[in-house]
TrEMBL record:
It holds the Pfam family adh_short. Keywords: NADP, Oxidoreductase. This is Short-chain dehydrogenase. One of its GO terms (molecular function) is oxidoreductase activity, acting on NAD(P)H, oxygen as acceptor. The keyword NADP applies. Gene3D superfamilies: NAD(P)-binding Rossmann-like Domain. Belongs to the short-chain dehydrogenases/reductases (SDR) family.
Length: 251
């Protein structure tokens, strides 16, 4: 097996982020995890002695990116990869949504992600490391009520592509994980009925009831494998987790 690597994973306490972190740990790598749920992060640390450190908190806090990067170096001596997985969804039609709603969502989905990437860059240059930005199909396809969320993910796609052009030694790629069976999908089913297009909303509900949602481990393991062993030809690309370009990373 390849030498042990060190990763920062955001939104790592449950769902897709937890699946990514657990795969990395299962391959004997080290993880600096972050999320708002301290108890879940502590459980992850206890389950993997010597492999996990964490900072519990909100990624929009200005000191979070620096704290995570410094913890990786202090605890494990290096940083090889960053998986930017945290984010939130607001389902409101543009005409009914305030500028403040957009600003708040962009603070989470865009600006805190950018700040995390900027903080990690000096260390990732040393290791020719990798940033995987977790994107969404909503970055490419319009869903009624998702203008804030979809546009924020489109910004991540663009940031990743620009970073790849500017930082030739770092692999920067966005990966869409698909409709993953997580809390965000539950949120869509519980609160999206009034704001979404009826047919689109029912399609999301039917995907759940018919068992067609992607398991967190399916796309999460692909994302983790890319972070561990990134191919340079992927840098700057915006890919689906099950795309042909990622066939070698799929089970």
């Amino acid at each position: 097996m390849a030498s042990t690597k060190v990763f920062i994973v955001t939104g790592a306490s449950k769902g897709l982020g937890a699946a990514i972190a657990k795969y990395l740990l299962g391959q004997s790598h080290k993880v600096v995890a972050t999320a708002r749920s301290a108890d879940l992060l502590e459980s992850l640390k206890r389950a993997h002695p010597g492999q996990v450190e964490y900072v519990a908190g909100d990624m929009t806090e200005p000191k979070m990116p620096e704290s995570l990067t410094e913890l990786a170096i202090k605890s494990f001596g290096r940083l090889d990869g960053l998986v930017i997985n945290h984010g939130r969804l607001v389902s409101e039609r543009m005409a009914n949504s305030s500028i403040e709603t957009f600003k708040n969502l962009y603070d989470v989905n865009v600006f805190s992600a950018l700040a995390m990437a900027q903080s990690a860059l000096p260390q990732l240059r040393k290791t020719n490391g990798c940033i995987v930005w977790v994107s969404s199909g909503a970055a490419r396809n319009a869903y009624v009520g998702w203008s804030a969320y979809g546009s924020s993910k489109a910004v991540l796609n663009s940031l990743s592509t620009h970073l790849a052009a500017e930082e030739k030694g770092i692999t920067s790629v966005t990966i869409e994980p698909g409709r993953v069976d997580t809390g965000m999908q539950a949120q869509i089913r519980s609160s999206g009925k009034d704001s979404m297009d009826k047919a689109e909303y029912e399609d999301f509900v039917n995907a759940f009831t018919s068992g067609k949602l992607v398991k967190p481990e399916q796309s999460g393991h692909v994302i983790a494998r890319v972070a561990i062993d990134p191919r340079k030809d992927l840098s700057g690309k915006n890919l689906k987790w099950n795309s042909p370009e990622l066939a070698s990373y799929q089970e």
